[in-house]
Specification:
heterodimer, A: alpha+beta, 6-stranded antiparallel sheet, 4-stranded antiparallel sheet, globular, B: alpha+beta, OB fold (Dihydrolipoamide Acetyltransferase, E2P), 5-stranded mixed barrel, 3 helices
Chain lengths: ~675, ~150
Amino acid sequence: MIAELGNFALILALCLAATQAVLPLVGAGIGNERLMRTGRSLAVGQFVFLVASYAALTWAFVVSDFSVEYVALNSNVALPTHYKVTAVWGGHEGSLLLWVMVLAAWSVAVAIFSKPLPREMVARVLAVLGMVSVGFLAFTVLTSNPFDRLIPAPADGVDLNPLLQDPGMIIHPPLLYMGYVGMAVVFAFAMAALIGGRLDAAWARWSRPWTTVAWCFLTLGVGVGSWWAYYELGWGGWWFWDPVENASFMPWLAATALLHCLAVTEKRGGFKVWTVMLAIVTFALTILGAFIVRSGVITSVHAFATDPDRGVFLLAMLGATLLGSLALYAWRAPKVGLGGGFGWYSRESLLLGNNVLLVVSCAAVFIGTLYPLALDAFSLSKISVGPPFFDAVFMPLMMPMLFLVGMAPRVAWKQGNPQETYRELRWVFVVSVLLGIAWPLAMGAWNPLTALGLGLAIWILLTAATDLRNRMMRRRSQGLGGMLRALRPSFLGMHLAHAGLALVVIAISMVNTYEIERDVRLAPGETATAGKYAFTLASVSKVRGPNFDADQASIVVTRNGTQVTTLTPQRRDYDSQTGMPMTQASLHRRPSRDLYVSLGEPVGSDAWLVRLYYKPYMFWMWTGGLLMAFGGFLAAADRRYRLARDRSTVSQTDIPISGRDVRQEVS
Amino acid sequence: MKKRQKRLALVLGVVAGLSVATALVLNAFRDTMVFFVTPSEVMAMSDMPERKFRIGGLVEDGSVERDQESTNVMFRVTDTAKSVTVTYEGILPNLFREGQGVVAEGHIDSDGVFRADKVLARHDEEYMPAEAQEAIERAGHPTDIDKGY
């Protein structure tokens, strides 16, 4: 009964979404305020019904109602309760329900926080969000209904994939969906602006915080996914350039470009047409990601039960989105006009350079991911491109980008002065080069690429630090309080995010160069070394978990004769899936390195195969990701967005409407 | 410079950047692309390619020999018509089984043995069971090996 109610609520939400897609848009077109206002109520109504639907599915999981097919396939009686709750998004149908619920939550957030915006704008944004919602809800109801019954009900369910029974998995999908779906909001803002013919700095100022927040969630989602793969898949990799990872990385790259483009649009009124294009591309890439993951064109831990209908539906949705938005773009964009002019050496030009690099890297990932799939789909040949391809393309593109990340914030808008930049940054540059050369030497093995990577990371950190210091010193006369107030959240957030990127670059350079990986055979009492660490297998014993049996090795790690820790990797056999062992790695984490051990299969009478890893600076990979997201949140919280909103309700004249005004204002 | 010239230069700059990027991508593709070859095709090859390639098929029943004193393992990959001997040093994927699909990446030695740097089985991030299936189909035995999983 509960499941039927959930299904009913889902269908009602679809009806509300369809209404939301039409009424406010018509209202905005004919200037009918009552119709425009319906957008807010419909968004809230849709959200309420989706929460009800989601709660019904969760209930079915908690009480183990195996007459619901989706529950039977993704849970079982022995599954611990907290995993039952998270198993709701452990499969395709449920994760789609989470997706549409998150989309509805974003719509409600837009409805609440956009009160000061012009009502036509809000109406159009909500209508576009309604259209997106109709697409995904129809997809859920027609091809992937989580409430389908299974009669007769089995006595016990199949189980949640053991790989997904993990804390990282609890937070990875919701974070990623917050990011993906947030890009739909950005897309809706762009579409609404195109429909209304109002692409100006005010529009950029409204959509910028939304983009930043969505980008932060996407960053966290990708970061947690990588963190999860690192320790849960058991084999120490943190990025495989797997199509599914690329599916989330492409929107991230496009969104990063969009974020920086919006900065130019807001501050200088430039790049408007390009910004809208990036908003469309980013959103299209999220749908493409859904297609890659859910159509069954690839197989991985993410690929759920495959069904050709789903792939066709998603492709149709992608086609409709691109056709509709690009037609609108072609019709409206030429009338937008250019923004403020800028010199060859200016922050705009440097940001443009970075944008090109980001978009090109995104295109390279796109080709590397889809070309083999396309060749295969047309039965031409079977090839695979792995990490070597992506490394070969990515490195040369990222190096100049990292250099610009450090430099661009120090160059003035409109017209910079190369001599001034040179004066300000020459010592920072020299120090970065020297440290970049010296650090690998201190690590014991010198390598030009490592030196370059580390030097660039230091360059970013030092330019950010000196910029913060300069900004504070200018307010020296106002005491410490004044100096701290000089650090506006958006300014500080930008530098923190860039510093986060630098930390990630340090971690990648270090781990790629100095990581040690060894597969060894160990009998009890035997010792193997990885770097300066000695790993001794003390014993292997049987242990029992809540729903699995495991062989657990006890491995003592020593360095120079002193004990560091004892690691206990497991090889688990889940009750529900016998004969399908799972590796549970054991880690010892310190800021300067991770020690990582996983247990392979037994050989001989009492020996085991063991994989040992020494992974330097991995800690900074995750810290860097967190710092990037934190910086983004900080920037989005800047007071000026609230001020801008408040001001825009009073009068619109003080916000530059076109590039021409911006130029006058600046000059 | 006039605005028009500036814009022209900008467009040229972007086009130049894109061409460099395209060259980079194509070059990387040529150097890193890994072709997929079936065991029958391997046996039919007269001279062995020096670059890495992938083979796929089923792990032949009873062919897995694990060295008890080291991490070496040897097995045969078959497409039901021909089979290739593969050696690997290290830990095999958890779901590596006799009679099940497998993909190995590496190169052929002068002694005709395939030395794998990487072995993929089901549930690995990059595994494509289609490759194993394809090998069997190309060998002329269109079977539904999905049933075997």
